[in-house]
Write a structure and sequence with these properties.
Elements lengths: L13 H12 L13 E3 L7 E7 L3 E9 L9 E9 L4 E7 L2 E2 L17 H26 L1
Antiparallel strand pairs: 1-2, 2-3, 3-4, 4-5, 5-6
Length: 144
Amino acid sequence: MAEYAVPILSDPSIYERNFNRLLMLFPMLAQACASPAPILPGPEEAGLDLEILECHKFTLVVRISQPLPLPTGPASTTSMTIRIYFDAQVAEVLAYQHHRRFQPKYDYPNVDMLHVREKRRVNEFLGEWLESRLARRQRLLVSA
């Protein structure tokens, strides 16, 4: 029996595309350090909120969250902590829900049952999440 091989995408531009998507949803990110407000609401039609956690000369650490229509509890909000590098123009996920410090590659199987390329998968999920919010915003703006 042949061993299952997980398809590996070799496209590092996912981090660059996530940076661009974040700036399209939150254009004020470039000046976020100058703003005294730690929480910046996203465009109402996107349904996201952004909280500034750390602010440095070339990087910004933010938490993006989206309330879900579920009862209160750990699954009532989807959130990600993201580091944005303005000099390199990339964004990477630092934490998602209760998982943080993703390794580039994991042995499989592993105790936490993480995907072999969990870091990559979480960054791809961020891209899909932001893309869905951009599409939602576009639909609402067109229908208004």
